[in-house]
Amino acid sequence: MKIGTYEIYSLTSAILFAIGLGGVFLAKHFLRKIIATIIMGAGVFLCFVSFAKRDALTFADPIPHALVITGIVVAVTAAAFALSLARRIHKLTGEDTFGNEK
Amino acid sequence: MDILIDSLLAILTIYLAFRCMLAPKLSKAVFVFFAFGLMLALAWIRLGAVDVAIAEAAIASGFMGVLMLDSLRDFSLIFSKNQERLEETASKIPIKKDSYHWTTALALGLGLILFLLISIQAIWEVPQGGGLTAIAEANLPMSGVEHPVTAVLLNYRAYDTWLEIGVILMGLLAIFAAGGLKQYRKPGLAPAQDPLLRKTILIFTPVLFLFGAFLLYFGKMGPGGAFQAAVLWGAIGILLHLGGWTVFTVIPRRMRQILVTIGLGFFMILGFTQMATGGAFFEYPPAYAGFLILVVETLAAISIAAALTAIFAFLTK
């Protein structure tokens, strides 16, 4: 099997997604959970663009690129909303985790 | 040589993602997140996606990082409170609630590794389809622009971009709603600022504006376009806000609303006009396509920049 740019980055994307998934489950603080979702998203985007690289003819497939730009902006908007919710929860209750022990 | 650079970048990206999750201090995690975004931007360049690299560095790393940093201050601690609580409880009672039982940790770890293997196998087996490169290239002369990614964003798939501007607007509204709908900070209450900071911001403002305008226009023939320009223009608003000129809060309310919605509104009117004149939704007449795309991009960039500034101004009040 030939190891090239596509193989390396598609492997990286799977690992990034797994790290993000682990972070979403295991991280406690809201901020860290939000960062974990962004890392998960980065894994998906990386996987998508590495396919564009693999299937490139004269230039890389522009459709995944355009969709990933759209995706990044939407992910950031969603994360900003999540941040504002986290800050609201912190302001109202003083909590910064989903603690259900107390 | 290529493999060396790619593997180094990949290892660095994975390491930084790990550090983001495992850094003991929250502030450290946020700073590592900045670095992670920049490494990822380099990875995009290696994959030939320069547009994505600019968007990643500017929006996902820059704008998101600034919001994260600001949230750190809002959680009113530079250290993770969890960490302090952990140390507090450790000194008093034996910790129970903040640590995982080893069986749980083992099960979760094994599950994650299994998931990783499954996803790697799934990625490996995606068939080589050839993609849509050939079609995109064949229609490029009719699209009004020379750069394929801009052609996809604003001509072939203009519908996606239109809705994306809508998503940003909706995110802004949701943030307003979640924040409890309070007024912006009054300009008079702006904190006294460092004169050096203010001067630096004043020097950077025209440079950022010019660079944003360049990216906007250059999107026609190379990497760049509405989103990248919008983030640079949004950065102007954020910097001015940080410097004590709360521009977004002093302009009249109506004006703010118009600024935030003009991109979405014009895009929609354009789409329906094309339908009324017999074309499909977002089917530009090839003769005017270049000009129309430039107008749409400019208005969209203004709208997105205003929305990003508004998100920042509202979150930091």
Structural descriptors:
heterodimer, A: mainly alpha, Helix Hairpins, B: 317 residues, mainly alpha, 14 helices, 0% strand
Characterise the protein shown here:
The complex is a heterodimer of chains A (102) and B (317). Chain A has 3 helices and no strands. Chain A is mostly helical and 102 residues long. Chain A has one domain: Orthogonal Bundle (Helix Hairpins). Chain A is elongated and about 55 Å long. Residues 89-97 of chain B have low confidence and may be disordered. The termini of chain B are far apart. The longest helix of chain B has 27 residues, at 289-315. Chain B has helices at residues 2-22, 26-46, 50-74, 81-92, 102-124, 133-138, 140-143, 148-156, 158-178, 195-218, 226-242, 247-250, 253-276, 289-315. With 317 residues, chain B is mostly helical. Chain B contains 14 helices and no strands. Chain B has 2 domains: 1-95; 145-317, no CATH class.
Topology, element by element:
The complex is a heterodimer of chains A (102) and B (317).
Chain A: H1 5-26, H2 30-54, H3 62-93
Helix pairs in contact in A: 1-2, 2-3
Chain B: H1 2-22, H2 26-46, H3 50-74, H4 81-92, H5 102-124, H6 133-138, H7 140-143, H8 148-156, H9 158-178, H10 195-218, H11 226-242, H12 247-250, H13 253-276, H14 289-315
GO cellular component, one term (chain B): plasma membrane
Pfam family, one (chain B): MbhD
Transmembrane segments (chain B): 6-22, 29-47, 53-72, 102-124, 162-181, 201-218, 230-251, 258-282, 288-315
Amount of beta strand of chain B:
under 5%
**Structural class of the helices, strands and pairings of chain A?**
mainly alpha
Structural class of chain B: mainly alpha
Runs of chain B with pLDDT <50, length 5+? 89-97
Number of helices of chain B: 14
Number of strands of chain A: 0
Output mean pLDDT of chain B: 81
**From the 3D coordinates, which CATH architecture of chain A would you assign?**
Orthogonal Bundle
Characterize the biggest β-sheet of chain A. none
Poorly predicted tracts of residues of chain A: none
